[in-house]
Structures are given as C-alpha cells and as structure tokens.
Amino acid sequence: MQRRNHYARARVRALLETLAILGAVAAGIFAWPLASHAAPATGSAAPDFALKATDGRNLRLSEYRGDVVVLTFWASWCGPCRDTLAQLNQLQAGEGGPVVLGVNVEGDAGRAASVAASLGLDYPTLVDAQRAVGRIYDVERLPLTLLLDRDGVVQATWSAKEQPGESLARRIEELNP
Fold it and tell me: Helices then strands (H, E): number in the chain?
C-alpha cells in the first residue's frame, strides 16, 4: 500500500514540475515581445524606419545621417505633446538647428496634418499609420523625444511630462561644435 502511495505522489510531483516548466516557458514567450521592443537606450543606434509625411513624401530616418536629429512622438489628444511640438518648431527655426521629425502615433493623417497646420509646424509630420514605429520605439507615454547624433546614436531622451527645453538646446550645442 505504501508503495502505491509513493508512486502516486511521485507522479503528482512530476506532473506539477512539468506544469511549472510549461508555465515558465509560456511566460517567457509572452514576455519576449515586451522585452525585445524596449525604447532605444542612450548610446544605442536609433532603429531605422520609413514613414509617409502629411505632405505625401516618404521619409526614412537613415536619410538624415550626418545631421543632428530630434525625433518626437506625439498624438493630437496629448496636451504636453502640443507644447513640445511648438517648442521644437522654434528650435528648428534657428540657424544651424537640428533636423526635427515629428511622428504622429495615432495613424490618422488628416488629424495629424490639422494639428501640424494649427501649430504652424515647419518640420515634417510623419504618420505611423500601422503604429509599427511606435512599437519599435516602445512609445508608452507621450510625448517621447529623442536626440540623435550625426551617426544616428541616441544621445538623450525626454518622455511624458519632461519638456526637452533648455537641456535639449545645450545637448544640441554640444553636438554642433
């Protein structure tokens, strides 16, 4: 009788261990996409992408290698995004300023164009119609602004309620000797 109980306990233990291993594998499979799409860290290369601008042009981030680039992700419903967009418009207007690219993550080209026009933006407004670029850059909070050096390497990031402001201007000066 004890032998049967021993075998029964051993089978239950083996079943539980197998279920635990399968659970860990399943958790890893589901967590991998979250971990693999982390926002580019400072010092890492910014992932390349191509998007259509509201004026109909197709633009690729890698076309701006050799220039300092400010890349900002935004949405029309985001109040702080509008403040950042306007601030970057002033930055773009300066002599020797960086290339500024605004990426609307809503996927609605009409709405993005309307907001860009209402703010008088002088830089390209790109539309992430499939929301793929937002996923690659792990855009969770808006606005997200990145400063890229001439080699396309992320030098600094600002997110959510952090306005780039003067810290962005200082960093740009450091990159423009």
Answer: 5, 7
